[in-house]
UniProtKB/TrEMBL annotation:
Pfam families: Hydrolase. It comes from the Bacteria. CDD domains: HAD_Neu5Ac-Pase_like. GO terms for molecular function: 5'-nucleotidase activity. InterPro entries: HAD-like_sf, HAD-SF_hydro_IA, HAD-SF_hydro_IA_YjjG/PynA, HAD_sf, PGP-like_dom2, Pyrimidine_5'-ntase_YjjG. It comes from Bhargavaea beijingensis. This is 2-haloacid dehalogenase. The lineage of its organism: Bacteria, Bacillati, Bacillota, Bacilli, Bacillales.
Amino acid sequence: MKQYEVIVFDVDDTLMDFDKSEQAAFGSVFGKYEMPDGLKQYRSSYRTISEGLWRDLENGNLGLNELGSERFRRLFLEHELNLDAVVFNQDYLGFLGEQMHLMPGADKVIEALSHKRLAIITNGFEAVQTSRIRNSPFSDAFEQVIISEATGYRKPQKEIFEYAFQQLQVTDPSTVLMVGDSLTSDIQGGLNAGVDTCWFNPSRKKNQTPIEPTYEISRLEELLEIVI
């Protein structure tokens, strides 16, 4: 079995349940604006808009700061809501940074890998991701936490991995394993950087892309069979 010296994790929907965090933050921000039914009324539209914009971000067609307010600008336009998208986005990100919902088995897996060199590479807003990781049970487990907003690069760009390798003083990419739930972001990014990849696929989705991960798991605990 191949030995990996460094294991790099994605955060959202890999170590943390972003759907639950987003839902809680969405409910809180609409509550602040005295729109208690906002979660139920607008979340479906928001998810469609947001997912499209995140794909644009991955493809390099949109910046992160633009994404933040643009998703709400489009939502408010679609539903004829007279709200300031920039301010609303800031409020939403504040609530999101308070959320910390773990994926099943995440804390146990990170604890079991405490003898390994661990790192994070995540696309997202620096303040939000830093806050969520700091409030998690594994806040001190990672040697490096690389956040796209802080580096100017994003997965799947190989540059964010090269930046991580510099911070980790990694000279041999074959000693690194990238673990994440997104084929187009985490796995493609790992392939671009020349590292082995592990696709976390809890819903057992069919891979309908040409992207081929080195490993595939449906439970985080299965990772231990690969790296220990």
